[in-house]
Input
Amino acid sequence: MKDSMLRKVVLICGFTVMASAGASTQVRAVPGDSHETTVSDGKTQPPVKFATVWADDTGATHIGHCRFEGLEHKSYAPPSAPQWIGLSPDKVESIAYAVLPPGYVGSWHHAPGPQWVITLSGKWSVETTDGSTLVQGPGEVQFNADTPSRPRPGDDRVGHITRTVGAEPNVQLIIKLKPDADKARTRGACAY
Output
């Protein structure tokens, strides 16, 4: 696994190990075009981007773009060199691996609950009811918050449709959150 991808997984999962390593700041999500920046140890945090699939009040689904802020520039495992690190506020229920074979098409459905999907290898796409399509490859992260999606007058589609892109399998790490996850985030908002 690429080092940068592993850092994203650690960032999102918020493993207890991080707390014992001295990480004390929880990350927060902001809109991708926000001018907010984090400065720690005299350095400006680089962007850590993720996409979100969410449902609006009518049940239609959309794609948004967010990023994390609030990481600290410090050593994760002293005496190693400093890196950017922060605790995730998410309450993790389970972590699973999924492999979408070449040619896979997952018909219209919504997520079983709020979840992070991290692409480990291969590519896949997500199409929402508003007609937007998100294609993700290795190292890219998506927060899936379209569970409230529902049919609308004249449109029976619910949630999203997923497809494998290309001729290789798509391998994903899925981090499912507990049902009592923050309601603002489960609606796709870029805020904790």
Q: What stands out?
A: The CA atoms of residues 44 and 110 lie 37 Å apart. The radius of gyration is 17 Å. The chain is about 10% helix and 45% strand.
